[in-house]
């Protein structure tokens, strides 16, 4: 497709300036430079390409080159200097307009992302704005959130690296990648789980082993907020439960919110089952950690001892001490489920650091 023809209005007064400069040897005045900048801004807002505009200026200079009679070439030098000044001022105005456009676009994008992830704004209006950024909110979307050792902004190398990898792999897909509160956020159609899996892989590598959580797909503008909240909750849960998985899926963690849905009942269970551990030397935390590792190791004493850097004999003593204090035997299948549920509840409720 041929580029649109550049109108003469964008070069208004250009030939007259060159003619006058050839006769006087002067430089462009402040008003003339400001007029070139204004025309440059107008050209940028109209949508012309800077390269084509520079070529047009050079072609006009050649076509309207003033008659030079000076034998020493001083007039020619003056005209060339005027061409340089005019194009430079024009380009400055053009670039300034482009920067303003980029800032406006970025501000609109940030406002849209804030409204989308926080559930603000009218949902119908939000859905209309979403099409501008490649999202169809009438369909299901899922959100992945990645954290690293530091807070990130969109200009940092980590988000740019992840974005480049996603664009190279999924060019043309409806994906929105951004940063929010120092975390990387990726929004993708719920029907394309491969996008978020790949994002998780790239973000984990780019953040030097950071953690990624993926929310479930949900429909509508409110669905993005729901999925985003699920991903954040999964990250918070992983922190409190000391989960080792680098990639967490909210769908795999649904048992935890179920367990804490009746918070008071869970608090009562923790107090009744684990409260006696406070009487142990060193408090409840060492024995609570022993139980947590014991259950994570499948109740295998040798593996638990290895993970805790204990001898099997020392581990056996700790388990017996837990039995003595609580009345529940961790090795007894009849007691194990209750104890394990209480241990999970303790982690979810930050016990014993927080009183229940």
Please give the share of residues in helix. Answer: 55-70%
Report the end-to-end length measured between terminal Cα atoms.
70 Å
Number of domains: 3
* CATH C-level category of the largest domain: Alpha Beta
Give Rg in angstroms. Answer: 33 Å
Main beta-sheet strand count, sense and barrel state: 6 strands, mixed
> Globular, elongated, flat, extended or rod-shaped: what is the shape?
elongated
CATH superfamily of the largest domain: ACT domain
Task: From the 3D structure, determine the CATH topology of the largest domain.
Answer: Alpha-Beta Plaits
Overall pLDDT, averaged?
88
* H-E order: HHHHHEHEEHEEHEHHHHHH
Organism: Streptomyces gelaticus
Domain CdaR GGDEF-like: 119-237
Domain PucR C-terminal helix-turn-helix: 287-343
InterPro entries: CdaR-like_regulators, CdaR_GGDEF, PucR_C-HTH_dom, PucR_C-HTH_sf
Give a verbal description of the structure:
The protein has 356 residues and is α+β, with helices and mostly antiparallel strands. It folds into three domains: 8-102, no CATH class; 138-253, Alpha-Beta Plaits (2-Layer Sandwich), CATH 3.30.70; 259-348, Orthogonal Bundle (Arc Repressor Mutant, subunit A), CATH 1.10.10. The chain has 14 helices and six strands. Strands 1, 2, 3, 4, 5 and 6 form a six-stranded mixed sheet that branches. Strand 2 (176-180) and strand 3 form a beta hairpin. The mean pLDDT is 88. Belongs to the CdaR family. Residues 119-237 form the CdaR GGDEF-like domain. It comes from Streptomyces gelaticus.
């Amino acid at each position: 497709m041929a580029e649109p023809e550049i109108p003469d209005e964008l070069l208004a007064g250009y030939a007259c300036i060159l003619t006058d400069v050839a006769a006087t040897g002067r430089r462009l005045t402040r008003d003339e430079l400001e007029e070139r900048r204004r025309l440059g801004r107008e050209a940028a807002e109209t949508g012309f390409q800077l390269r084509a505009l520079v070529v047009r200026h050079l072609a006009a200079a050649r076509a309207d080159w003033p008659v030079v009679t000076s034998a020493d070439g001083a007039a020619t030098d003056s005209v060339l200097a005027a061409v340089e000044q005019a194009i430079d001022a024009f380009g400055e105005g053009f670039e300034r307009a482009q920067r303003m456009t980029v800032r406006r676009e970025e501000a609109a994008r940030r406002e849209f992302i804030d409204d989308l992830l926080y559930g603000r704004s009218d949902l119908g209006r939000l859905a209309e704005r979403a099409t501008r950024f490649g999202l169809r909110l009438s369909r299901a979307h899922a959100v992945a959130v990645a954290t690293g050792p530091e807070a990130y902004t969109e200009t940092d190398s980590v988000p740019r690296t992840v974005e480049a990898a996603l664009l190279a792999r999924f060019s043309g897909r409806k994906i929105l990648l951004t940063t929010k509160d120092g975390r990387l956020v990726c929004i993708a159609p719920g029907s394309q789980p491969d996008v978020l899996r790949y994002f998780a892989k790239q973000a984990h590598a780019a953040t030097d082993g950071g953690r990624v959580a993926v929310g479930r797909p949900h429909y509508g503008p409110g669905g993005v907020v729901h999925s985003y909240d699920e991903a954040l909750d999964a990250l918070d849960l992983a922190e409190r439960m000391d989960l080792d998985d680098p990639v967490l899926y909210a769908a795999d963690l649904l048992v935890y919110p179920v367990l804490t849905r009746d918070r008071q009942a869970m608090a009562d269970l923790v107090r009744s089952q684990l409260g006696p551990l406070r009487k142990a030397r060193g408090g409840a935390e060492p024995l609570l950690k022993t139980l947590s590792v014991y259950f994570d190791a499948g109740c295998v004493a040798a593996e638990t001892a290895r993970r805790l850097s204990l001898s099997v004999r020392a581990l056996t003593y700790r388990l017996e001490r837990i039995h003595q204090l609580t009345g529940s035997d961790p090795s007894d299948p009849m007691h194990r489920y209750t104890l394990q549920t209480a241990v999970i509840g303790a982690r979810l409720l930050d016990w014993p650091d927080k009183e229940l």
